[in-house]
């Protein structure tokens, strides 16, 4: 467990102090406020939904009773017509009537309906037909396609009872109606079907009169649908009369809502969510439905959320202000301290941080100032010691001519003089030795040009050719690098290593190639030989070698050369050795060309 807390602490420490303070203020202030606010919103929203669900069901039940009462008037009218003796007689003998008798029958039925003038204002037509399809009476207000009548007749015949059915019909003038149809059976023989009575009730009677003033909320939709999902009456243009709602998934939640009034039922419709409230009229076999949008139900909670958002915004501003002020009392002195540290990092060692406060940050400033003073003293001491060390090292390098080398060189010159008749080789050897000694012992310069360093190499090779016989040395020098300045005594130990460890043990003529070139913004000096080469163990020993044997000009090894390069120019520079037994050795020195990198090494062209 402690490991997890430690990991959390490390993660927190990665965050800046100002951000930590801000987050702390926000968590401690906003989190309780938001939690309590949204908990209250959730509870109030649930209460609103529950009460709305209950009240909407009660309203739909009352609406159902009101619609049923009005429907009952039309049902009674249809029943009166089916039992009327005039209609009974006319339908039984209709085929035997002449035109005059048929007109008389129509006049008598029309007179019966005239007594129902209050109902006629909502009726678009009354049609009485025989089972054979003959029209006994047609009120004539608005014609209707016979297919609607036929469909109703089929439903009545399929049900096998003498009850009425309600369905949708559209007049030829485009007026939507609710079609009430019922069979006409003989009063003397009830099993004998004489025909049908159809009453077209204007749909506006329901939507404009019965529930026109019903307000279930902004955006709500109230409509009547039959059990098959066909809209019979509607106040919404989104659900027009005659529209089928089965494919929209509305019918199933409507049925559930009518059966289970204790639970809330909702539906997704037209990119919105609605609360479904429905009441089923068993006599009409249809549902009275209201779809109440959640946006309306949540309008109050939206207002509460807005209030909470405003409060949270105010708290957020206050929290940010407080955190900014408090963090400034910590961060400003820390920023000054960091600035002082960066100045020291950039090389300004005489910096003092100013802070007179008595808190922990002030204590850090005082300790920092004391530390800077200590660093200044130590750097001054180190600089003096390093300067003395470098001066001593250079003097040692210049005076470090191996006496064995001088003895062996002079001995070789003696034998060369005895063998030679002209003494030319001895003279060249003595001249080369004199020039080499002058450049190494007398000349105190720390840097020399590449051309001067190569002259030292040429003098050294003249001496070594007397001792080891003939071998070839080839130079490939970029003209632009002849006046490039290098550390003195940089190439001689490497050439010496090629002669002693490579060519002296090789059979036949040896060859050394010295290549000086510019590559990748650096000066690159490559020394290659085709001598005996080295295996991995010999190469590793050579890289660690500090001192040479008596054949060397001075006690300077490869390791010393690499250390001098890195000391002057940086760790990214140095030398690289590649060797393979029997195939020779290649040593590559990499030095900076850009004066801004490491110590300046190029000083003009002369």
Automatic annotation (TrEMBL):
Major site of localization recorded for this protein: membrane
The HAMP domain sits at: 328-380
Task: State the UniProt keywords alphabetically.
Answer: Cell membrane, Kinase, Membrane, Phosphoprotein, Transferase, Transmembrane, Transmembrane helix
Is Cell membrane included in the keywords of this UniProt record? yes
Top-level taxon in the UniProt lineage: Bacteria
Which species is the source of this protein? Answer: Paenibacillus campinasensis
Q: Does Transmembrane helix count among this protein's keywords?
A: yes
List, alphabetically, the PANTHER family matched. Answer: SENSOR HISTIDINE KINASE YPDA (PTHR34220)
Q: Which residues cross the membrane?
A: 21-41
Q: Which SUPFAM superfamilies match?
A: ATPase domain of HSP90 chaperone/DNA topoisomerase II/histidine kinase, HAMP domain-like
Instruction: Name the InterPro entries on file.
Output: Bact_2-comp_sensor_kinase, HAMP_dom, HATPase_C_sf, HATPase_dom, Sig_transdc_His_kin_internal
Subcellular localization is given as: Cell membrane
Topology term for the membrane? Multi-pass membrane protein
The protein, known as? HAMP domain-containing protein
